[in-house]
Amino acid sequence: MLMVQQAVFTVESLIGKVQQQKQLIHQLIQENEHLRHENKQLRKENEQLKYRVQELEARTKKNSSNSHLPPSSDRFANTRSSRLHVACTSRYTYLAPHASRGKKATDDIGILPRYEGTMMHDAFGTYPKYTHATHALCHAHHLRELKGFIEQGHTWAMRMTTFLLAAKQAVEAHHGALSEEEARRWERVYDRILVMSSVGRRNDRSSSFRYLGHFL
Predict the structure, then answer these.
(1) What dihedral angle (degrees, nearest 10) is formed by the CA atoms of 151, 157, 158, 161?
(2) CA 25, CA 17: separation in Å to the nearest integer?
(3) 134-137 vs 118-121, strand pairing mode
(4) What pLDDT, in 10s, does the model give residues 181-210?
């Protein structure tokens, strides 16, 4: 009798364990279905996001190319194999990595080849190749180079720095446009400083001087 009771207990215990295993399997199946549904939803959301990013990228390129505001384009080292290029207006900023740092990169990115407004930049040799745009050289780069010549004792560089800052203030005070007479007055001062700097350029053959002389 005792052996029969033990056998019954063993069977009931096994049945209980089987039921627990069934419940666990059922729970795992439900969780798996839930995960499959979530993954499907994530894939759908990723596709929607990808489409929105592509749409935004195309619109940003178009707005940057058509904008009448001056874009700024600089290059920053990203990794050993690529560089990060940026073109921006007051409203849009477009970033693009590319293995090249020159014209191949800016052609592939596609903004500068289509731009027909005023392009503001440094003296990097790629930019003047886009002849359909008007070019303006950035005074921030001018001032940085002039600072080096001031430290070397070039008095004309100090005068040019003062001139550029004062001219900027004058233009801003006149809401962005000087009268013809006022503009000619500033141009005469500018020309006199350039005459002073030409003496320095003849006497100094350093690469940095040639760089600055390229766009003064």
Answers:
(1) -120
(2) 12
(3) parallel
(4) 999 999 999 999 888 887 555 555 444 444
